[in-house]
TrEMBL record:
<comment type="similarity">
    <text>Belongs to the short-chain dehydrogenases/reductases (SDR) family.</text>
</comment>
<keyword id="KW-0560">Oxidoreductase</keyword>
<dbReference type="GO" id="GO:0016491">
    <property type="term" value="F:oxidoreductase activity"/>
</dbReference>
<dbReference type="InterPro" id="IPR036291">
    <property type="entry name" value="NAD(P)-bd_dom_sf"/>
</dbReference>
<dbReference type="Pfam" id="PF00106">
    <property type="entry name" value="adh_short"/>
</dbReference>
<protein>
    <submittedName>
        <fullName>Short-chain dehydrogenase</fullName>
    </submittedName>
</protein>
<dbReference type="InterPro" id="IPR002347">
    <property type="entry name" value="SDR_fam"/>
</dbReference>
């Protein structure tokens, strides 16, 4: 049977492109969104390999309902994210924006992983992909122009390494992907199209059993944390 992949924030943009790419590779895909109708419309664009599910990564009850319904998820792509604080600086950014950003970008992915990864460990196989960014890399330099977003991705990178260590040797691989600047509603003038970036993400979501875990990857290559 084909593996089943769940993608958060998949009703448009990069998430939808990832779902389409994974469906093209023969996986069954579950497109999730906060609004079921939006998820259903996106799933219909892909076809019979896709199905919708309502899932709000900031709502524990929503995540729990999805996990109870979807017991066969083998691949988790934590794509849902927000950029709310562009143009702010660390000393002046409203902390309410920081809290909202961390709620989605960090805690949302963490909550979803807690809901779905233990079953992967029990079955002895799984792939987890966190969508990260170069703006969260200490080596490359955190971005002062959106400090909440940048720091949220640094935290996602840390979470990736911790979950990779916890699941090491279980058959579950956990990695973070930097897709680069992708042309979506978040960054409408970015040079890279979502379909191109989706290939990189799908490659990590379908790694072979001897693939890396606990890595920060860009176009299949390790990059510095």
């Amino acid at each position: 049977m084909p593996h089943t992949a769940l993608i958060t924030g998949a009703n448009r943009g990069l998430g939808l492109a990832v779902a389409a790419e994974l469906a093209d590779r023969g996986l069954d895909v579950v497109l999730t969104a906060r609004d079921f109708d939006a998820a259903a419309k996106a799933a219909a664009e892909i076809g019979t390999a896709a199905r919708p599910c309502e899932l709000d990564v900031t709502d524990p009850a929503s995540v729990a309902r999805a996990a109870a319904e979807l017991t066969e998820v083998d691949v988790l792509v934590c794509n849902a994210g927000v950029l709310l604080d562009g143009g702010h600086e660390p000393l002046t950014v409203p902390l309410e924006l920081v809290e909202r950003t961390l709620s989605v970008n960090l805690l949302g992915g963490w909550r979803t992983a807690q809901a779905f990864v233990p079953a992967m460990v029990r079955r002895g196989w799984g792939r987890v992909v966190f969508l990260s960014s170069a703006t969260g890399s200490f080596e490359l330099g955190l971005w002062l122009g959106a400090p909440a977003y940048s720091l949220s991705k640094t935290a996602v990178n840390g979470l990736t390494t911790m979950l990779a260590r916890q699941t090491e040797g279980t058959g579950v691989l956990v990695n973070a992907v930097n897709p680069g600047q992708v042309r979506t509603r978040m960054v409408p003038n970015a040079p890279r199209g979502p379909e191109e970036a989706a290939v990189d993400i799908a490659d990590v979501a379908t790694l072979p059993d001897n693939g890396p875990t606990g890595a920060f990857l860009r176009s299949g290559q390790r990059i510095p944390w």
